Amino acid sequence: MVQTPEIGPPLGSKRASFASWVVTILLAVQVLPLHAAGAVEQIFAHKHLGPATCASSVCHGANQRGASSEILLNEFSVWQQTDPHARSYATLGSADSKRIATKLGLGDPRSAAVCLDCHTDAPPEAMRGDKFLITDGVGCEACHGGSEQWISTHTEAGRDRAKTLAEGLYPTDQPVARAKLCLSCHMGTRDRMITHRIMGAGHPRLSFELDTFTWLNPHYEIDEDYVRRKGEFNGARDWAIGQGISAVNLLDILTDERKGWNGIFPELVLFDCHACHRPMSGRQWGPRPGTGLGPGVVRLNDANLVMFRHVLSVVDPRAGEDLMAGTRALHQATLVSRERTFAAANALKNKVEGQLDKVAAYEFGPETLGKVLDSLIRDADRGEFRDFAGAEQAALAAQSVVVAFETARQLGDADAAGLRAGVDRLYASVEKEDAYNMANFVSALKSLRASAR
Ligand code: HEC
Ligand code: HEC
Ligand code: HEC
Ligand code: HEC
């Protein structure tokens, strides 16, 4: 099932007058254009009051989950105790962080803007309230938006959620908006860049998949009332949207003259790490039809574009073929000139963006799993998974789609156990990036397909 946009009647009220519906829809259209850029701008549009403001025991600071309320009420404790976001400022004080910052000549990473950008909630000084502390790390408002305007109104019984959104609550429940938000730190965007220089200083490689990451440390639960309030939730759809938005983000940075380029080179972080970082004794090169590139060429990291093609193999196979042609054209353009690369990237970005509404509205049913796996196997058979980055995203895709249908109870217990074991094997085949072996990966992929019959 597919989640409908949040334009339903107000919380707890089934009766909404026609006028209030019109207002709701107008607000929703105004505040939530599906592909509006600038998650970071939206997050920083209003003053941030700090997590302490949310933490009272009658608000989100209960020790245990509330018995009778719709939301859990212990969000603050969950965040503080189990969510790495609460420790992300402390990370900047670690020996690893100091080493990274020293190599970059940055001094103390706890006061380096480039680190604070992603490891804390860092609105401009003027947008920080009295209780705001940078040391709180990635706090509530880093994801839910500055609360100055909605802090006192969002708890009113029967309040129209669209109004709260208009006051700056960020629509984290909507996959397009959520993807943009998470990727602003987990991939880097024009606003918050991670560069190859930061990687070169020892920062871990960033890897993200929207559905998997949404469920790693949750302070929310999808239950009946959640679906009633916010619409159906579908992990396969979130995986699909996450791939599309990641692909758009890559193309967006690549075509930015300032962020996408560094001296005479393009920003290397946008390229496949293992195209350069592999032993010379390997003699591992082989053709990848999806790129059409010959040996000895630096390749763009197209893992998300490839995965979005697998999404389209379910939603609209012809659009999938078109995307493959566009991706190949982009790879080819990188051999010619910057101008040709920009033109190919912009054309491809339009193609991906043009599919997002269709993907968001698609009903990903249990047959999705077999279709996605078949599409991955067709790629595997023609050698597309030579590169680790693509294989890693394929493993995340398989896991996400399996778990989505398990959660929706669309798989029997025995099937689910078999598929889980298959996903574990697939994961094992991409666990060590430096020891990645395509043959092992492909055989794990095929055995997973066999258990999905
Ligand atoms: C303001 C930047 C920022 C935003 C926005 C953000 N994250 Fe993070 N996230 C981080 C940082 C930094 C870390 C690493 C924290 C640490 O270990 O110090 C992290 C860690 C995580 C982890 C743990 C990863 C692991 O390897 O265990 C998950 C899961 C995660 N984020 C999910 C999300 C999701 C889902 C979203 C969007 C709803 C999101 N994040 C939005 C900065 C951000
Ligand atoms: C574009 C956003 C971004 C920027 C800029 C950034 N980081 Fe990170 N950093 C992350 C995310 C996201 C993670 C978590 C990766 C994961 O686990 O998936 C992370 C992880 C780390 C880790 C590993 C944490 C752990 O628990 O293992 C260290 C150390 C670190 N960052 C230090 C720094 C330092 C120092 C800087 C500044 C030079 C910096 N980061 C800049 C986003 C960023
Ligand atoms: C890394 C991003 C991130 C951070 C930090 C974060 N949240 Fe969330 N929050 C989410 C996401 C994603 C959801 C699930 C989607 C939704 O329903 O909006 C969510 C949902 C919620 C919900 C709604 C649950 C429901 O059933 O409707 C509440 C309440 C909430 N968060 C409160 C908090 C509080 C309080 C904090 C700080 C202590 C916090 N969040 C920190 C991302 C975040
Ligand atoms: C175009 C080739 C190229 C690509 C693509 C590339 N790198 Fe590099 N990388 C280099 C070069 C050149 C150096 C510098 C080596 C030196 O200074 O001796 C380097 C250095 C590094 C180092 C430091 C190694 C050391 O010995 O200290 C790390 C870590 C690193 N890169 C990670 C990455 C990651 C992660 C990616 C993918 C996101 C990536 N690289 C993509 C060429 C590349």
SSE layout and pairing:
Blueprint: H1 18-31, H2 39-43, H3 75-82, H4 88-91, H5 95-104, H6 113-119, H7 140-144, H8 161-166, H9 175-188, H10 196-200, H11 210-214, H12 224-230, H13 235-254, E1 261-262, E2 265-266, H14 273-276, H15 303-315, H16 317-333, H17 338-361, H18 367-381, H19 388-407, H20 413-428, H21 438-451
Antiparallel strand pairs: 1-2
Helix pairs in contact: 9-13, 13-15, 13-17, 15-16, 15-17, 15-18, 15-19, 16-17, 18-19, 18-21, 19-20, 20-21
Bound molecules: heme C (HEC) (4 copies).
Descriptive report:
The chain is 51% helix and 1% strand. By secondary structure, the protein is mainly α. Helix 15 runs antiparallel to helix 16 and helix 18 (367-381) runs antiparallel to helix 19 (388-407). The longest helix has 24 residues, at 338-361. It has a two-stranded antiparallel ribbon. The protein has helices at residues 18-31, 39-43, 75-82, 88-91, 95-104, 113-119, 140-144, 161-166, 175-188, 196-200, 210-214, 224-230, 235-254, 273-276, 303-315, 317-333, 338-361, 367-381, 388-407, 413-428, 438-451; strands spanning 261-262, 265-266. The structure holds heme C (4 copies). One heme C binds next to helix 4, helix 6, helix 7, helix 9 and helix 11.
Query: What amount of the residues lies in strands?
Result: under 5%
User: Helical percent range?
Assistant: 40-55%
How many angstroms does the end-to-end distance come to? 22 Å
Q: Element order, helices and strands?
A: HHHHHHHHHHHHHEEHHHHHHHH
Strand order of the largest sheet: 1-2
Number of helices: 21
Number of extended strands: 2
Bound compounds, please? Answer: heme C
User: Main β-sheet, in a few words?
Assistant: 2 strands, antiparallel
